[in-house]
Amino acid sequence: xxxxxAARTDQKRTLxxxxxxxxxxxxxxxxxxxxxxxxxxxxxxxxxQLSVCTPHVSTSLNKLALSLVKGMHFDGKYxxxxxxxxxxxxxxxxxxxxxxxxxxxxxxxxYIAVPEGQPENMVLKPLYMPAVCIWPKGFDPNPGxxxxxxxxxxxxxxxxxxxxxxxxxxxxxxxRVVYGTYNAWDSVQKDVKGRDTWGLYGASMLDPIELSxxxxxxxxxxxxxxxxxxxxxxxxxxxxxxxxxxxKELISIEDAQQAIDDWxxxxxxxKQNEDIVGAGLSVVPIDxxxxxxxxxxxxxxxxxxxIGLLQTPLSMGDTKGSTYAAGYVSEADRMVVLEGMQKFVxxxxxxxxxxxxxxxxxxxxxxxxxxxxxxxxxMEARDVLEWYNSGVLTREQLLYWGxxxxxGE
Length: 409
Prior knowledge:
By secondary structure, the chain is of the alpha+beta class.
């Protein structure tokens, strides 16, 4: 064994020990708020469930995916090939497939799809990640040794170890699928078989906000239960008259307590739109803006989720307390970050483009995908007209900017 191999062996041994002592989740229950049956064992199934349990996650993921593929179009070395790809993209709704890629990459951290069909109808079929394992080169699952699995990836295995009721194990060479990750080297990831991996699977954007999602669902359910208690909120009822009678020793404490119990028994089933009427008592409702501001805490959890998915309260429709200047700076910064993520999506999509080029007997990378520059400032009409009048822009470019059909179309 040479020095490099020995170093790699020591590194795997060290990382395996580090992986076994990583941060663990203290609350692994399968109930959150008004939902139950969360699968906290299979992390990919868990991501799927988290992404649809609140609009703050689902809407943020959808907006993120739509932003990442905004203005997608083809470019290339040969005009005829580019036109071929444009016709194909419309036929198979390739934009929607690109949006799905962006959304699944952000949600799962890993995207794996199989190109299916002939060149004229080729589509990307994403694999069901809760049933998929990635095997590195030379990996043998039979010994079951506790080793850290690291790249290079060699095989994609679905339904590993299963062969009953029509479900059987299937494998595919990594070179035959479209495969991409997001921040794969950030931390050790568990595969669906519980094996430690590093660099094979990407990091889900839901991991850092999982606790915030769980707390938000619990707060929502707790608040609903709070206001639905007997059809109203909770009350602090002070029996002032009884208090005075006890102080003057006109009645005993036992008699006062019995009177309170009798009153509570008669009013325990107070329904919606019914009032508490009495003499010698004061009723103070307990609401969400008392000493424990539930609404402010709920708002902070929603903000955590939005920030974790590269959204802002402003981009999610909350303009309260925001100025135009602050909103502009925030959005400009967010667009720069999204453009960086666009490169991940672009590189993964290029694998699919090259697969179709291969089917057409065309050279790799002779067609590629471009996206609209998200951080580009919005041009006003007067600026565009000035550029047109000075000859910087053509008439066709001016019409395209204004959203009008080109001449002859």
